[in-house]
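User:
Care to share a sequence and structure tokens?

Assistant:
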Amino acid sequence: MPLTPEQRAEIEDARAETRQTLRATSDGMESHLYRAHEVLDHGLVRVIDYMGDDSAIVQAARVSYGRGTKAVQNDEGLIRYLMRHWHSTPFEMCEIKLHVKLPVFVARQWIRHRTANVNEYSARYSILDREFYIPAPEHLAAQSVQNNQGRGETLEGEEAARVLDWLREDAGRAYDHYEAMLSQDGQQGLARELARMNLPANIYTQWYWKTDLQNLFHFLRLRADPHAQYEIRVYAEAICRIVADWVPAAYRAFEDYRLGGASLSAKALDCVRRMGRGEEVTQETSGMSKGEWREFMAVMEG
């Protein structure tokens, strides 16, 4: 489990402590504050702090002095207009700080989103816990034959059992050696900053990750996509549920125009128009490559 009883008690103590404030708050986000949303076998996502709500986006767009100068439905209409026309700056007025516990190999994907402030648990100063991500059998898959960075069919039977055994054994053995190298029982003990090099990429790390809503939406658009790697996608999906409660109008616009929408090239748009006029269009007459045509047809066929 991601949290011990002591950690759960600390969270409940933090949630029990309230403070009076004049700043804008989001009732939906308040319900998530500090709570741990469990992800994978040992991971979690927690909201540590946030700034702004839907009205902050509207306020920035209009440069108004209050929480909004128009009716709520007009505010949502403005938010949808901003999203539709890629006006990103007003969304930068909202910020969120998350505590995330995740496998190291997922963290290395995540950190590619560089528009955030990150502070990671330091294995130079502290000793990492014996916690490793071991996939559930249904998430063990072969290499895709079509996508160099994707998965194919699920492994089954003896092969799946063998892979799981290796993952558990290799992780456990590496950690045993890590502990042995650190030990000062009858030896000096290797420095923590050196001993950590022996740890596998499926060990769990933790960090605080702070970003604004615009850059968070970019992260979610890529990582909550069905084609994203499962192990990072489940984190993105957990964050999506939090954001939907935090800024519901902005999230609905994001879901409509980004998650559920599609971007078409000029050639693809020309094909749509030709099809609309009743013309039969093929890959050969489209002007698109085979890969482009395959992706275009996937959009058209849903």
